[in-house]
Amino acid sequence: MGVKVHLGSVNITEETKKLMREALDAGVISQGRYTEDFEAAIRKKFSAPYALSASSGTAADTLMLAAAKYLRPGKDEVIIPALTFIAHVNAAYYNHLKPVFVDVGPDFQIDTSKIEEKITPRTLAITPVNLLGGFCDMDAIADIARRRGIWFLSDDCEAFGSTYKGKYAGTLADAGTYSFFASHTICCGEGGMVVTKHKEMADLIVSLRNHAVKSHNVAEKFVFPRIGFNAKMNSMEAIIGLGLIGRLDEFIAKKKRNYAVLRDGLGVDLIPDTSDRSHVLHGFPLMFASQNQRDEALQKIFNAGIECRKLFSSIPTDEEAYRYLGYTPGAFPVAEDLSHRTLYLPIHQNLTDEDLAFMVHTVKPLLA
Ligand SMILES: Cc1ncc(COP(=O)(O)O)c(C=O)c1O
Hints:
The chain folds into two domains: 14-245, Aspartate Aminotransferase, domain 2; 248-367, Aspartate Aminotransferase, domain 1 (Alpha-Beta Complex), CATH 3.90.1150. β2, α4 (86-94) and β3 form a beta-alpha-beta unit. By secondary structure, the chain is an alpha/beta fold. It has helices at residues 14-26, 33-46, 57-71, 86-94, 138-148, 199-208, 235-245, 248-266, 291-303, 315-318, 333-341, 353-367; strands spanning 50-54, 77-81, 98-102, 123-126, 151-155, 163-164, 167-168, 175-179, 192-196, 277-278, 284-287, 309-310, 342-345. 39% of the residues lie in helices and 14% in strands. The strands form three sheets. A seven-stranded mixed sheet has the order 1-9-8-5-4-2-3, with helices on both faces. It contains twelve helices and 13 strands. The structure holds pyridoxal-5'-phosphate (PLP). Residues 56-58, 61, 84-85, 87-88, 129, 155, 157-158, 179, 181, 192 line the site of pyridoxal-5'-phosphate.
């Protein structure tokens, strides 16, 4: 059976079509004024002092860590939750940083009570992820980072538009990252962004994403004081984002409504809003009593034509890619348990009432 309900959905607006025509006529397709306009739109929307576009969320994570490392040399460990998307961990690897994993709590987010015991003189940063669009205890992490003199760098690729005490995800830490890949609230095809409070970090990222050129002065264009990346967003992606950012509030309202319909229809509410946290979720999470039950449900839901996903794994224990670090099953019991028993359903802004009713009709019997 074909897919009836997709995990993510693309919106191409009239504004995008107009800008795209203008850009194509002018031959502006690489990084340039449209990427700058998209960065300015993000800065304005989220009240972020600096916003730097990148070729993907993975690239944004990588650039953020690279800049943090160059600004505080000699530190080579980063604290990362065991339960996250693998790209978050890969970004540390690309920077020759050792991931030091911390288990999560029952809310899917990094267990802040277990962070301090992992801090050493080599710790560069705490890099939590606001998983599925929920929030870690951002105040507690900010406090630890401040007291211990380390960076607080959050991966907000799944939390675009979520707010914590009225502030947007991404703007709560020293820096944060977004992804504009297909399953995210704003989809540009590919793309990412780093937002930061720190000018020196922003300046470094502008250089690092462009092979680490010394400056844009013609005489210094081919002078490279550091090893950089080619991680620039192009104009086509920025224009898709520019056409969507004005509709973000509408998308947020739709995703929140979809969450409420699924919550009420299925009787499940794993990441509820609270008085100070308003979540724009990446997917609608469902938890089962056992891994077998989860796996069976995943297959049945998928076979019915609803694109769903297993929750990410406990990276150090479950992913072969990181087996070389030597962790054995049981090292991160909560992350392992949650990842084995959870799946998530689509929640995107273009779901119709029929899609939602079909999802409730299909999934509800599997929860009995
Ligand atoms: C938590 C998290 N970090 C990083 C990424 C990487 O983003 P991208 O796919 O744009 O490289 C994702 C992607 O979905 C993600 O969910």
